[in-house]
Backbone:
């Protein structure tokens, strides 16, 4: 199968990975504000926690092949979007900047979900390109950055506070991701 930038596969996987990247960017930009400014975490402790959360993402990526032997990719993508949505909705309900534990759990979920979504969606998006996957990777990353930049710009125009951007990205991103996964599955089944 030859790669096509306008195929349902490439577009849906680009959207999924872009939503995931938007959550990561909002997490990276809002975590110092929330943890250091609002919850008075010391900078050194913040660095240790962020390193631990990054390690959690790496461990998730390393364990993903084992998970893929147990669960189909579509199930892992659906679970990831559900975790994203549930984490976002629960964060909206509890957005009071009083619970350090809550935010560390939210940031941990983001790192694990991102590892799963990125690994699977990038694999599916780039697989049809074969020898041209380097070029396709460049296009895919450009789409992700444009999408993320546009989302951040839109939320700043609307006047959403940095700490709230994260929870809205998670809730809406989880919901949209779930719909994109369903659409991708329907389109894929129709092509068969």
Residues:
């Amino acid at each position: 199968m030859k790669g096509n930038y306008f195929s349902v596969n490439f577009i849906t996987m680009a959207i999924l990975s872009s939503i995931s990247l938007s959550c990561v960017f909002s997490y990276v930009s809002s975590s110092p504000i929330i943890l250091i400014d609002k919850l008075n975490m010391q900078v050194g402790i913040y660095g240790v926690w962020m390193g631990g959360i990054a390690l959690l993402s790496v461990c998730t990526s390393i364990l993903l092949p084992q998970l893929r032997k147990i669960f189909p990719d579509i199930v892992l993508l659906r679970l990831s979007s559900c975790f994203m949505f549930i984490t976002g909705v629960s964060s909206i309900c509890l957005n009071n900047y009083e619970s350090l534990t809550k935010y560390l759990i939210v940031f941990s979920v983001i790192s694990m979900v991102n590892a799963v979504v990125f690994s699977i969606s990038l694999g599916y998006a780039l697989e049809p390109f074969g020898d041209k996957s380097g070029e396709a990777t460049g296009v895919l990353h450009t789409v992700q950055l444009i999408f993320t930049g546009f989302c951040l710009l839109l939320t700043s125009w609307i006047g959403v506070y940095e700490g709230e951007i994260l929870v809205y990205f998670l809730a809406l991103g989880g919901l949209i991701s779930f719909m994109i996964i369903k659409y991708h599955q329907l389109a894929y089944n129709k092509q068969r």
